[in-house]
Write a structure and sequence with these properties.
Helix content is 28%, strand content 17%. It is α/β, with parallel strands linked by helices. Strands 7-8-9-6-5-4-3-2-1-10-11-12 form a twelve-stranded mixed sheet. A hairpin with a 4-residue loop joins strand 10 and strand 11. It is globular and about 60 Å long. The model has no long low-confidence stretch (mean pLDDT 91). Bound molecules: S-adenosylmethionine and iron/sulfur cluster. The site of S-adenosylmethionine (SAM) has 21 residues, from strand 3, strand 5 and helix 10.
Amino acid sequence: MMIQDSFGRIHDYLRISLTDNCNFRCFYCMPDEHYDFTPAPLLMQADEIIALAKLFVAHGVKKIRLTGGEPLVRKDAAAIISALGQLPVELVMTTNGSRIREMMPVLAEAGIRTINVSLDTLQEEKFLLATRSKVYKRVRENIDLLLDQGIAVKINTVVMKGFNEAEINDFIAWTKLTPVEIRFIEFMPFSDNRWRSDRVFSHQEILGSIGRAYTYRSIEPRLNETARRFEVPGHQGSFAIIGTMTAPFCSTCNRMRLTADGKLKNCLFSTGETDLLQALRAGEDVLPLIESCIRQKKEALGGQLDQHFEQLDAGLLKNRSMITIGG
Ligand code: SAM
Ligand code: SF4
């Protein structure tokens, strides 16, 4: 039996946040630098994550993405990854790339074939500004390590006007000899993340910048694709744009999000959430809760946003911060 919403969309992709803790402090993600991370007992324990994942897989989930916070800072990340690697599911991960080297054997053994690494700039000083972390070189080396190991790498790049939009073509230049897919992401509003509409660099503006320096062509979308994909002829890598603010992709959405404290969100922008962890701990039947949460899914953008983001007052949005949702 599949998990389906009231618009007939089948939900077979689960994103699990392993923690809201992180060793970076990206200004567009963290509510503030002194954010208090969720205490460990309130987080899903490893066995609870596995139990919930098994339930989702038994009901049609084909793909699981581990995210966070930074998934690889969790102390028992290796055990969780190994256990999930046993399930009949495509396991992928989004990471800031700082801890790949030490986790490489676990990732390989769990059969992870694709990893998204976040990188918003190719300039070391700007990286420090964006993340408050000094490990730019390590992240670049870890990306090379993944490629050497035959793991496909997608680079998540949040484009923010006045911060990194001038680097878009440096990223495209990188794809000439490096087989990475750069995913340019429009800057999205979350609780206290310093979002302003005039910082959004839109899908059209991104394409405009690239078009001034390169000839590109579209690539056929994959099923349930959230990004529009393109290639520059002759480049080993490719690029894509995730235009949540100006060109959303809700009509084919198949995603569900489980927060690190065990709440199910039916959309990145949903106002509500359903507590699966409490039910699991109380020995209740969790499946009806999942089904009802997904049935309540709104047609687009959690029913909170529309494409006229210029008028949006981010302060009125009802949501968590990105670090507590798990991108
Ligand atoms: N720590 C991991 C990482 O940085 O890849 C995983 C979690 S992070 C919340 C997941 C993704 O969300 C990252 O690629 C990050 O750049 C993106 N993200 C965070 N805040 C965002 C925002 N306000 N708008 C768009 N993307 C955002
Ligand atoms: Fe941490 Fe990722 Fe958020 Fe940056 S984007 S603060 S690395 S969770």
